[in-house]
Amino acid sequence: MRDTIVIGAGLAGLMGALTLAEAGRAPLLLAKGLGATHWTSGTIDIWGKHAAASPRAEIAELIAKQPSHPFAKIGLEGISNALERFRALMADAHYPYVGSIERNLLLPTALGALRPAALVPTTMIGGDMSHAKDDGRITLIAGFRELGDFFPPLVAANLSAQGIPARGVYLHLPPIKRKLSFDSRVFAQLFDDAAFREEIGRQLRLMKGEATRIGLPAVLGLKDPVGVVRELQHLSGAQVFEIPTLPPSVPGIRLYRIFRRAIQQAGGRLQIGAEVLRGESEGKQLRAVFTAAAAREQEHRANAFLLATGGVAGGGIRTDHTGAVWETALDLPLRAPDSRGGWFHGRYFAEGGHPIFQVAVATDAQLRPLDANDQPIYHNVAVAGSTIANFDPIRARCYSGLAITSGWYAGTLLAQQ
Amino acid sequence: MRQITTDVLVIGGGATGLGVLRDLSMRGIRAVLVEKGDLTHGTSGRYHGLLHSGGRYVVKDPQSATECARENEILRKIMPGCIEDTGGFFVVTPADDEAYAERFVAACHATEVPVDEISVREALRREPLLNPRISRVFTVCDAAADSFLAARCHAEDARQRGAQVFTYHYVKSLIVEQQRVQGAICEDLRTGEDVHIHAAYVVNAAGAWAGKIAELANVKVTVVPGKGTMIAMNHRVLNTVVNRCKMPADGDIIVPIRTVAVIGTTDVHVPDPDVYGITQEEVAQMLEEGEWLVPGISKARVLRAWAGVRPLYKDHDVASDRDISRTYKLLDHEQRDGVAGLISIVGGKWTTYRLMAEEATDAVAAKLGVSAPCRTHLEPLPEIASARDSASRRLERDPRAPTYFWMGQPLARVEAADTYGELICECELVTRERVVTAITEGHAANLDDLRRETRLGMGPCQGGFCTYRAVALWNEVAPPQANNSAVGDVLALANSGALLRHFLQERWKGLTAITWGDQLRQTRLDELIFLDTLGVDLLPHDEGQQPADSLVTDHPSIATEYHAS
User: Is B492 within 8 Å of A179 when comparing Cβ atoms?
Assistant: First the structure.
């Protein structure tokens, strides 16, 4: 028997597991597979709806107006504490994050749009375009033709159109032995190689012209990305920053690896490939969960459980053609539209998103799951991440922020039990 | 205002219109074709992709069956590259009347539709996922056809023979003088400019829209738009076209096309070919019917639902639209209505487009005093540049290379050219070279056109990854024309943002009726990519503003209204 069990390996589950591990509650993390970390940009977004300038101001207003909002339960202090813990973890791993909840940074996307984010890895901070319209600097965007998910001319054209002077160039891939195909991971491995970095740095110096900052796809190594950026800055003579690309996300992989190591060092254990199928309870106590295994279901008992299996994207909420919508691990009740007819808006870009992506497990102030009468179903279960998002966290631009803060909060609450 | 003078104006850029255009130009008659959208924007681009053996019509519509059987044989010879020779089955499932099978075989013989019977065991050996409870299996010459590619081959061939093709040209009015149609006034939807096309003869090949065109000459042609809804499943569950051996009905056929399988179709009368929706009930019905052919198919992922409108010509009162003959009709409006200079070619189906074109062209040629005979059944279609890349040209030199399209062909091309790293669309194996060629040498005005031209984004991920790449390539190889760079940048922004917004909204129409389970999850992953990581919604744009000129599919004249359902 374990003391605590965390279900889900996305940012919410990882943050929850780390919090429990550091509180001496030796969590076992069970997950069907890797979480959405590998799909997302690696920045921590707290609130960016309508290009919000200050997440803190928006969250404060939200807390005042919507007491049932997940952020209202966590509270501003909880959010700050969670972010501080996250920041300390990343600093310890030599992959520090900068920024704050006070002001959103504006980072260029691989499309050249400007995306708000609260905390970003230092490898990306050079891309903050908050003041770029009047700072008189020229930006060079550089990439590789071989990397099909990053197109410097497009990024540069769209930045220029928004009043940020930029130029896009392709670098020459140095002769290398391997590879039929290149994705972001392959490039990250190439950047871990000193000779490769040197050659790219040389090309950047030659191509930079009047540019004083250089944006590259977020593939600058898995081992020591901060060191790679430093070295490229030294070689090129310009500020270098990363721009997130399409999945698989190298910054997301870095996050996952840092969390995994920290959880293990603090006495936790991760079991990926273990899908939780159901739970067993006694009264208001969840006693055990069961995972799929080759011969028979495997039983995992614990005193407390943290559920962070995600929403529709993460796989925590599933649907079928009859219009049924269910929570996959514990079959917790959901508040969903009555039929498929109510799932979508006709317009893809509908403000606020589509109703099906706002289906969530209702929770009380301690993030315990609630039944239809608003009574807690289990006293020893806390739910975190997209599973409790009764709004669209992608459109509110707080997908990663909700995960980190609610994962930390749920872990903290369970650790106190 | 532009003025164009020609011998014959063809209205409609679907299979029939393009067939007429090619036939006319092969007989040395000058011709111009106008289409309000992209080529195959209408029904030719929205059907299940079946090259009919004729089997579906042998009992109910024998004339149509015979036409299909004859044309099937011809099309296989003139455009093998557009056809995958899947063969077809007619199977008797437990839900079907056993007695129909005998009528079916007799009718096949009577209509000259080639048919054979094979054992259930042999059928299951060939198609292991087929319902094992079927009792009889008949083989026919059904095949899967690429109607997008076929249309482009026709246009290219006609162009080489001197014909002109104008897409995104909307017919505003016909020029009628002294009871004679003398041409048409069109609007070029890309520029807003009026184009006067003067012609000795006008061929109305507008399919489901033929009634609307005829109306412009005050002639009544009743076309019943019969909506057919189809759904694409994410697995190619069968390699053979499989039909239920029964009277044609809803959801009784599965057609394997490239990497997917298409279940078709419904038949619902809609009041207007431009206004229709896809209901969840239709989708549910097709999945349910599909279970009789491939048990478990309803558990697979549905990638997309779409609908086309059959251009059924209503001659006299018939009770149900399914009872309207699938055959075609040539209407000489001089004889029929006293309006000279106009003929309409209505009804029919993709498989018989060439025959329809031949008959229409015969009529026009006779009016113009041209005696050259039809040769479209003899001369193969040329291949077109955007459908081929350097690798395939190398491959074609191999005398062993099959003439029909085959499933492994795209991969073989990629392997032959060692272009794995050049794949823009991994699902449909579309290389960078083909996308670039389609943008620079083709006539694509937006990503939807690019999809029809290259099949980009038609596989399981439905454009989740390749769309961003295609937009970026578009920006690189076809930068907006402008005199100074500042204006050029603004256009670039409008273009890439608008291209993506248009694509995502268009795709959304086909997704809402079929999205649940894993496909809903994929949709959410796409939101993570397009909204969270790329920030499509963050690019400055103006809701009320007209999209960039390259995005004419949003033009009210050609946009299809879907009912929210």
Answer: no
Chain A interface includes B257 (CB < 8 A): no
Report the pLDDT value the prediction gives residue A298, as an integer from 0 to 100.
95
Q: Do A176 and A141 share a structural domain?
A: yes
Q: Which residues of B touch A181 (CB under 8 A)?
A: 420-421, 423
Instruction: Count CB pairs under 8 A between chains A and B.
Output: 159
Residue A328 in any domain: the answer is yes
CATH label of the domain that carries residue A303: 3.50.50.60
| Whether residue B409 is found in the same domain as residue B515 | yes
Contact A409, A74 (CB under 8 A): yes
pLDDT for B306: 87
Find the domain containing A217 and state its range: 110-243
Please count the structural domains in chain A.
2
B481-540 residue pLDDT tens = 433 333 344 445 557 888 888 888 888 887 888 899 999 999 999 999 999 999 999 988
A169 and A75 in a single domain? The answer is no
Token readout for B394 is 């190398």
Question: Same structural domain for residues A258 and A217?
Answer: no
Q: Tell how far CA B425 is from the center of its chain.
A: 20
Cα–Cα distance for residue pair B362/B351, rounded to 1 Å:
19
List, for residues A27-51, the tens digit of each pLDDT value: 999 999 999 999 999 999 999 988 7
- Whether residue B539 contacts residue B497, with contact meaning beta carbons closer than 8 Å, is answered with yes
Predicted pLDDT at B108: 97
DSSP letters, B508-565, are HHHHTTT--HHHHHHHHHHHIIIIIIS-GGGS---TTSPPPTT-GGGSTTTPPBPPP-
Listed ranges A13-17, B268-272, B469-473; the one with the highest mean pLDDT:
A13-17
Interval A172-194: pLDDT, tens: 998 877 666 788 999 999 999 99
Report yes or no on B181 lying in a domain: yes
Determine, yes or no, domain membership for A102. no
Q: Which of A39, A157, A319 comes nearest B475 by C-beta?
A: A157
Q: Give exposure, A84-122, as e/b (b: 16+ Cβ within 10 Å).
A: ebbbebbeebebbbebbbebbbbbbbbbbbbbbbbbbbb
What pLDDT, on the 0 to 100 scale, is given for residue B319? 56
Which of chain A's residues have a Cβ under 8 Å away from the Cβ of B418? 180
Within a domain: residue A103?
no
| Dist. CA B306–CA B295, nearest whole Å | 23
Q: Write down which residue in A200, A224, A243 finishes a domain.
A: A243
B524·A357 Cβ contact <8 A = yes
| Matching residue, tokens 């029909």 | B404
pLDDT, tens only, A201-260: 999 999 999 999 999 999 999 999 999 999 999 999 999 999 999 999 999 999 999 999
The domain in which residue B303 lies consists of 52-144+225-309
Q: How many domains does chain B have?
A: 3
Are residue B203 and residue B88 in the same domain, yes or no? no
- Residue B236 sits in a domain of what CATH number? 3.30.9.10
Three-state SS at A323: coil
Please tell me whether residues B181 and B131 are part of one structural domain: no
* Same structural domain, B172 and B255: no
In the predicted model, is pLDDT for residue A71 greater than 90? yes
Contacting residues of B for A341, CB less than 8 Å apart: 280, 565
User: Is cis: bond before A67, omega within 30 of 0?
Assistant: no
Can you give the pLDDT at residue B488?
A: 42
B39 and B174 housed in the same domain: yes
pLDDT at B387 over 80: no
Residues A8 and A75 grouped into a single domain: yes
Q: Tell me whether residue A276 is in a domain.
A: yes
* Phi, psi values for residue A344, rounded to 5°: -125, 155
Q: Do B533 and A246 touch (CB under 8 A)?
A: yes
B458 with B550, same domain? yes
